[in-house]
Each structure stands twice: as structure tokens, then as C-alpha cells.
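S1.2 Input.
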Amino acid sequence: MIKKKITLVVCVFGTALFFVLAFSRELGVCPSYSYSSCANISNNLAETILPIFPALLLLLATYWMREEIYQAWFRFARWWVPLSMLAIFIAPEYSHDWLYPIEKGGVALVSSIIFCLVSVAIIGFKYNSLRRREL
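S1.3 Output.
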């Protein structure tokens, strides 16, 4: 299994990259001659790597817990984060359907919310099962 420290470094780097891309206009990352296209590309990339930010927060929650809790959470996170990033990447930027508007931002938000809810449930169930086993 991947160690906690390696996962922490990847999540911190991904979160820093997310914030740089999300605030590229404010930071002046894009040159003035290609401002709109650069800002659009950086916003699309920021939306794609959005699931790394909640992963960092949940990793910090499990970092000081027992190894079994981290491993249970990581078994879920290691496939959910790449799959949600892929779903965000292939989602259309703008929806042409008024009844079911599926866009990148909506897919990113829903996948992050589901990731957080399922992760908290996994961490809670594993913590309770280990606590009951000790008694």
C-alpha cells in the first residue's frame, strides 16, 4: 500500500495546483495577450482536479488515526478520485439540454460531495468497529 506521507505530498501538491489554477486570473499566471483562452483552460483543469482538495482534508483527518482506518479510507479513495476526475474531464463544459443540465461544475460538485459523505461513513464505521473490537 501507498504510505501516508506519499499520499499527503501528492494531495498537498494537487491542492496547491488546484488553487493556482482556480485563481490564475488573480495571480497573473496567464499572459495578457492570451488571457481568455488561458483562463478558460486553467478553470477547466481546476475543475478536473477539484476532488483532490476534499481528499487532502480527509487525509488530514485520517493521518493521525490508526493505520487500519487510513487503509480502509484509502482503498475507497484510490479509485474514486481518479474516476471522478475522469467523469469531470469528459463532462461537457456547457449543457445543451434544459431538462438534465450536466456540466463540468455540477459533476465536480456532486462527485466531491459524494466522496466526502462516503469517506466520512467509511471512517466512522471503521473507527467504531475497531473501538468495539478493543472492548
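S1.4 Remarks. Residues 73 and 122 are 6 Å apart (CA to CA).
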